[in-house]
Amino acid sequence: MPQFIAGIYSDRALAERVVRALKQSGVPTECLSLALREEAEEDLSHRDQLAEETPFVGLAVHSAWERVGWQGGARPAYRDRIPPNIEFALIVAGPLAIALGGAQIGATAGGVVGALTNFGFPHDTARDFYERITAERQALVVAQSDDPAIVEKARSVMQSFRPALLAEASRPW
Fold first, then answer.
1. Please, is 119 exposed, middle or buried when counting C-beta atoms within 10 Å of its C-beta (0-12, 13-18, 19+)?
2. Which residues lie closer than 8 Å to 54 by C-beta, 6 or more apart?
3. Which of 6, 8, 17, 70 is the most buried (most CB within 10 A)?
4. Which of 15-24, 87-96, 140-149, 154-163 has the lowest average pLDDT?
5. Are 66 and 82 in contact (CB under 8 A)?
6. What pLDDT digit, counting tens, does each position of 9-56 carry?
7. Is residue 22 within 8 Å of 149, Cβ to Cβ?
């Protein structure tokens, strides 16, 4: 039965060190997920207005729309002139991202919370993780495996980095 261990860490740099340590301890990359707020993608300051006409503004606005999920021909032409309203952007990698089904998760809390509850975490815990990621700008690392040795390695490494919150769940498939 798959076991999930999730730890919330103070910032991206610490979460990246945790992921590196997990990989060095033998936890396979495909067992790891990372979720964090990506402030570099939140740099559009002028919303709901036409962008200035310069050679680079069109590319920047076009790129901003692609960051929130409009793909090529699916994006209405008028959208290239108005920057999207991005309240915050999240980066999610690993099985957690797969569980979201390719959804553009920056647009919805339900995706992250729902994926975590599908992994077996209580709704309140999943919601707490999400709030810490979005409001407090903390980073979530999740390790999953059905191998007890991998689970124990992950638990030990994650605890050694003193997470602000550590939770475990099992999910019978």
1. buried
2. none
3. 6
4. 87-96
5. no
6. 999 899 999 999 999 999 999 999 888 887 655 555 444 444 455 444
7. no
